[in-house]
């Protein structure tokens, strides 16, 4: 071919490519845009679909949002360490075994006395008894003159004290007591475990002190959580002779011993607990809190009183 024609031909082809290139690029760009739009539409449709399903489940009540409907322990937001420590305590605070159905019964307002059903599990009751058994000794009473512990026929059971916070299970139980009484665990004395055999009893008495010595640490006793670690076939009731209540109104009236019928009586049942207050809401002692343990007539009785003070009790 003629060199001039050859050059013209090359020039012509180059111009054509230059003219066609933007159009080709435009077409490709449109295709990419269209593909992207399709993808966005698909993601949007998926999102709307999932939202609709979630809304439907919420409306039907099949799922619920985690808005706290139960009371959680207070979180000291002062430090992350404290928060972490508390979180791990909640996990630990489950106690031992499984507790039966729990409910509360108001026994009396004078004195303030409440019955917590299934406060402890069977396993917890058995555990407390097993800790106490090797260390039981004759129970004593407080001498009002000296403030010391003395032997007395008024109280004939055997017993022993556990250390506050002694182990994980004790700590869990003590935390539960604090939750149910609204009294910090640090106000509590160590748990006492008591064993009553045939004929053994504790004559009616007050848990608050009449001497100036025993209130130096922690102040006056304000409340008692009395836990029953066993059933008792006959007798062994905890009786409140000064309670302002119709004693015979209790559903278990016909099952009570003569002693039990002398007041507002609670029949021991494994796992149940009676919370009663030795002080009135104004902080003064409540004489109506007089109570005693009736003699055991058949079987034996295990109980565990936890005494709580008005102030911190140092152990
Ligand atoms: O065991 C009971 O029922 C009562 C115990 C009691 O009153 C006490 O230890 O102060």
UniProtKB/TrEMBL annotation:
Q: Which domain of life is it from?
A: Eukaryota
Where does this one sit in the cell? Endoplasmic reticulum membrane
Q: Does the keyword Cell membrane apply?
A: no
Q: Name one GO molecular function term.
A: iron ion binding
Cofactors that this protein relies on: L-ascorbate
Membrane association type: Single-pass type II membrane protein
Q: What EC number(s) would the UniProt record show?
A: 1.14.11.2
Organism from which the protein derives: Punica granatum (Pomegranate)
The record's listing under InterPro entries reads: Oxoglu/Fe-dep_dioxygenase_dom, P4HA-like, Pro_4_hyd_alph, Pro_4_hyd_alph_FE2OG_OXY
Q: Which UniProt keywords apply?
A: Dioxygenase, Endoplasmic reticulum, Glycoprotein, Iron, Membrane, Metal-binding, Oxidoreductase, Signal-anchor, Transmembrane, Transmembrane helix
Q: What family is reported?
A: Belongs to the P4HA family.
Gene behind the chain? LOC116193835
Top EC category: oxidoreductase
Q: Which residues cross the membrane?
A: 40-65
Tell me where in this chain the Fe2OG dioxygenase domain is found: 187-310
Reactions catalysed according to its record: L-prolyl-[collagen] + 2-oxoglutarate + O2 = trans-4-hydroxy-L-prolyl-[collagen] + succinate + CO2
Q: What is this protein called?
A: procollagen-proline 4-dioxygenase
Q: Name one GO cellular component term.
A: endoplasmic reticulum membrane
Pfam families attached to this UniProt entry:
2OG-FeII_Oxy_3 (PF13640)
């Amino acid at each position: 071919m003629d060199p001039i024609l050859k050059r013209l031909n090359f020039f012509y082809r180059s111009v054509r490519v230059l003219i066609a290139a933007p159009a080709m690029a435009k077409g490709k760009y449109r295709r990419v845009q269209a593909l992207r739009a399709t993808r966005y539409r698909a993601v949007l449709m998926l999102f709307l679909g999932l939202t609709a399903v979630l809304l439907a489940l919420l409306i039907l009540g099949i799922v619920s949002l985690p808005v706290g409907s139960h009371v959680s322990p207070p979180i000291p937001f002062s430090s992350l360490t404290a928060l972490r420590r508390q979180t791990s305590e909640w996990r630990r605070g489950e106690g031992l075994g499984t507790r039966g159905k729990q409910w509360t019964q108001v026994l009396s307002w004078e004195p303030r006395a409440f019955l917590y059903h299934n406060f402890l599990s069977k396993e917890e009751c058995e555990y407390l008894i097993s800790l106490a058994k090797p260390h039981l000794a004759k129970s004593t009473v407080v001498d009002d003159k000296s403030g010391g512990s003395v032997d007395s026929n008024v109280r004939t059971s055997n017993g022993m004290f556990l250390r506050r916070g002694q182990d994980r299970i004790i700590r869990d139980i003590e935390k539960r007591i604090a939750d149910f009484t609204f009294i910090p665990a640090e106000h509590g004395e160590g748990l006492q475990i008591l064993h009553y055999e045939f004929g053994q009893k504790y004559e009616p008495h007050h848990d608050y002190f009449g001497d100036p010595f025993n209130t130096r640490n922690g102040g006056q006793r304000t409340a008692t959580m009395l836990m029953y670690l066993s059933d008792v076939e006959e007798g062994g009731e905890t009786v409140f002779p000064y309670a302002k209540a119709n004693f015979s109104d209790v559903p278990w009236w016909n099952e009570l011993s003569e002693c039990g019928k002398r007041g507002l009586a609670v029949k021991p049942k494994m796992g149940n607990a009676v919370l009663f207050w030795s002080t009135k809401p104004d902080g003064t002692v409540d004489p109506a809190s007089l109570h005693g343990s009736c003699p055991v007539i058949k079987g034996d009785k295990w109980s565990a009183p936890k005494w709580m003070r008005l102030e911190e009790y140092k152990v």
